[in-house]
Amino acid sequence: MSEQTSSKIGITTATIIGMNAMIGSGIFIVPSTLASFVGPAGILAFIFVIISVLFMALSIARVASLFPQEGSFYAYVKQWGGHIMGLIAGFSYFIGLIIAMGLLAQIAGIYLSQLTSAISAPMLGFTTLATLVTLNLFGVVLSEIGQYILICTTVFPLIATTLMCLTKLDINNLFPFAPHGFSNVLKATRKIIFGFFGFECAASLFAIVKNPARNVPRALVASIMIVGTIYTFFVGAIILSTPLELFTDPSTPISVTLRILFPDNLWLIGLIHLSILSAIIGTIHSMIWSSGSLLIALLKKVKSPVMHHLLDRGYITQRGAILLVGFGIFLSFISLHNIDVFFNLTAIFIVFAYITSMITLLTIRSEWHRSYNLITLLGIGTGLLIFIFAFEGLVKALLSIQ
What is each CA distance from 74 to 67, 94, 131, 357, in whole angstroms? Predict the structure, then answer.
């Protein structure tokens, strides 16, 4: 008994795992998009998303503790919606990840194009994606040291950019506070939540955490609050130090804007640029492998003799899943060019998996007796708001393209 206990992690390690799952390269796309869509009032939207993610994370953690099974969202939703609904939720989450990686591949190409003008950004993005898929096919995954390097390359530009921008704070940049109207504050949540996706990974730590009923929720709250604070200072510092007219293109790298603000610190800005680029590449690399594993787990749930034959005979393996994942990312990469479409589609598919998983708790009588479902209802309510705004934004984005 003591050996089992000693092999489990404590609340501090669980908190760090939660932070690693959440802090990703997606946050570097948000500030310029937020500034051009909302203005300084975007800080309020960040606070709303932090609260929303907190409710959703605690609810999904509760579901994970009740149904600690392989397949995560499939296993959760199956409890009330059956096999088909479980598959819909599981594949919805998977598709959301694929779309998000397509956007990151495009952004990687844009960041690489700042280093060389000889090759176009789309070609650089495609080359990066092809290289990362190939590395995964040969089993080259990030080691434990690689994971530490990845979190450092992500956190460094967040902190460095924040500190630099704090030296240029100008209260006048707060005005106009909401140049695009306050309705855009709530609508911006569909963009902001992109930087928080991943918290659900930390919700399934019950098997490896000491005293999980108490420590997993505490670790989730701590990790979300720490990450939320870092994000809020990061975005707030950029908005308060940068005139809105510099945010003309949401896909413009942050380093380009920083060069205008800090012409005497080009070496540091270059380091920030390289760190962001390595964070984006490292995130895509890790997600390709984990998405392949998720796809295998979902295919095992498909009730088809043909599918089970392919799996049992080894025709569908981790390598085959990686190829399918790579092809899906490539389709997202070449077919979607509007950054709003990326944000909205990702939010629609992933938040749908969150909401349908939380509904499971509403079907369990004991959850009502213990008042757990008050948090669940708040999580579903805030999740629905983000889902509705994302759907509305998708429709508008598609109509504007036509």
Answer: 11, 11, 31, 8
Alpha helices in 167-265 (DSSP H): 183-187, 189-192, 199-202, 212-241, 254-261
SS (H, E, C) 338-353: CHHHHHHHHHHHHHHH
- The β-bridge partners of 209 are 9
3-state SS class at 188? coil
The one-letter amino acid at 347: A
* Tokens found for residue 295: 């796809």
Count of other CB atoms within 10 angstroms of residue 67: 17
**Tens of pLDDT along 268-323?**
999 999 999 988 888 898 889 889 988 998 998 998 888 888 888 877 888 999 99
Are 236 and 47 in contact, with CB atoms under 8 Å apart?
Answer: no
> Binning pLDDT at 50, 70 and 90, where does residue 144 land?
low
The Cβ-side half-sphere exposure at 201, using a 13 Å CA radius, reads 20
3-state secondary structure of 54: helix
SS3 of residue 220 by DSSP:
helix
Looking at residues 141-146, what average pLDDT do you find? Answer: 64
| Domain spans, the chain | 2-401
Q: Give me the sign of the Cα torsion angle 86, 91, 92, 94.
A: positive
246: exposed, middle or buried (Cβ count in 10 Å: 0-12, 13-18, 19+): middle
In the beta sheet, which residues pair with residue 9?
209
Q: Give residue for tokens 């990066």.
A: 128
Q: Report the alpha-carbon distance of residue 199 to residue 72 in Å, rounded.
A: 13
Q: How far apart are CA 98 and CA 108, in angstroms?
A: 15
Q: How far apart are CA 31 and CA 97, in angstroms?
A: 21
The CA distance from 272 to 209, in Å, is 35
Angle subtended at Cα 103 by Cα 97 and Cα 105, rounded to the nearest 5 degrees: 100
Measuring CA to CA, which residue among 374, 376, 380, 353 is closest to residue 71? 353
- Contact predicate 196/49, CB 8 Å: yes
> Quick one: fold of 2-401?
Amino acid/polyamine transporter I (1.20.1740)
